[in-house]
Amino acid sequence: MNTSVNNSLSAKATNLKGQIWTLIESITRYKPAFFGAIILGSLLFIAIFAPLVSPFDPNLQFPTEARVGPFTYLEGSDRFVLLGTDQVGRDQLSRIIYASRVTLLVSFFAVIISCLIGTLVGLLAGYYRGWFDIIAMRWVDISLAFPFELLALSIVAVTGPSLTIVIIILSLRIWVVYARVVRGSTLSIREKDYINGAKAIGAGELRILVRYVLPNVLTPVLVVSTLYIGRMILIESSLSFLGIGVPATTPTWGGILGDGRAYIDTAWWIAFFPGLAIMITVLSVNLLGDWLRDYFDPKIDI
To answer: Is this model's pTM higher than 0.85 or not?
Structure first.
């Protein structure tokens, strides 16, 4: 008995290693996705170890050294500013590094929360149908029809800007996408022969949902999650740019970009570098998302 169990576990471990190796080989062959993975991995490393990577305190001000251009050595404070300083003399590179923590944190948590909510609603609506499906899908239609900017402004006006509120706002915006995707996949899966076979042998509905339906809807969920991380970065940056995101004292890419718009003619670097960081990050995530979509498509061999 123990021998058969050990053999089964060994076979599963070998199969998992083979799948991981296949995944690595695929992404290394697909150069755009490999580039995106390196960039995104580097950004995550920088965000996690920001206190070690950042050359200066992001909130340290030197008003006499305001709006100094990139690649400049400042004798007054004995520092070299690689990306210049902002309107109050803070180091741009340090602020962009620390801002990456907030932007990536908000984006990842918003995607995770909305994914959990949307997947649960989509599973239940697609499997059970009936009144729950009708109510859930009508709520999805209402959420998609309601202007997101108006929703964000209304919530922030009542609660005030904060990191938690931004995550909640973004989660309320995209859970409906997961609900629709998962519901559509569930409607197709629930008619499969193996689902009918599981019912015939007496498997409970919870077991069917968790064991047979959920694993088969995870592929589109994974692809949507990857693509929407980039979208969440853009939305969070837009909210911070408008001043309705996280508090102004917390550096974010959108907030730094918003501060620099008043100096675009005299200090272009204040707005340029955070905008460049947003563009590169979103591009990297989208390249990974495109690769995942093609990787899990059986019609495409990559």
So the answer is: no
